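quick one before i forget lol
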Amino acid sequence: MISGRQALATIEDAVARLRADENALDSSLRSASERAARLRAERMEAFRELARVRLDALSRDTVVGELDNAERRALNLLADRRQNFERLSGERQKAEEAVRAAEKERHARAEALEDAIEALGRFRQSIEARIHANPEWAAQRQRIEAATHVAEEAEKKAAQAEGDREAKGKPYEADPLFMYLWRRRFGTPDYVSRGLVRFFDRKVARLVGYDKARANYVTLNEIPQRLREHAERVKAEIGAEQAALAGVERAAMGQAGGEDLTARAAQAKIILAEAEGRLASRQRALADLDAAHYRIAGGETDEAYGQAVDLMATADSRQDLRELYREAARTPTPKDEAIVGRIEQTEAAIGRTEQEIGAVRTQLRQIAQRRTEIERERDNFRRRGYDNPY
């Protein structure tokens, strides 16, 4: 049977493998996006050539100039996008490495604490008989057993009184006149009515025998409350007695030479907590970068890529260019035919590349979702303390 720490390491390895898959798909996405941009630029170049061949000088210069402007703006957008995405990917990979290093440190610290606890446990076993033979320990143990018995009895009495209060209180609570006076705090210093209201309240009180009923109802409510308070006090006493027993054991262990082992375990626990804090901080930083990466790689907010594509698509789908393309396809010269063929081949390649980009984005979203689920399981595993050595 594997330990909790080994199980956690297995979960972390699964996360690392999924992140490696994400990074590989990132590379594929960058490559496909750059290929799509290059193909669109090639298509624009083919349209420029077609304009140079088919149009007069004035029209040619206008069309080519507008195509050049659109391409320049699109390429600038894509260059900025590539730089930002590479920066984000680089930061994310560094954050992943930092998390892996923190996980490794955390496992090492947990192992050190396990070793310290095991050493302390072996030492305790070796002196257990001697501690139990100590009259002070035996007396303290008897006090705990006695306090536990008293607490059990007090709990029974409190529970029984609470049950009795519920049953015996129903007749009082079912009497509307009694409850009317009770809620108005009649017969107590808190009662504030004057004049006719007080006059008639007194008559109602005499009618229902309120004074006697109120005294009984007060007692009925106070008994379970007092018994419950007593039960809680006794439980607290058990805790104090257990702490005293632990003190006796620590003193005995100290006399037997166990201070160093106890201090080692306590220090190892502190160091583990510090390592866990560093790991949690690095995981939060990575989660923020994951979210930013997902928005771009998953296609949710890849605005720069979309704007660049729109610029080039709008530029080479303008009416005069498409008419020029159709005319060249209808009455081609050998040079026209070659250009038209290049445009058709390029458009087909763009379509295939966009399909590839869509498929990669889908894979990235699926892997990111699966990784997030496993990371959630990992966090729950740690939160519940399944990997704690203590």
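fyi The longest helix spans residues 57-132.
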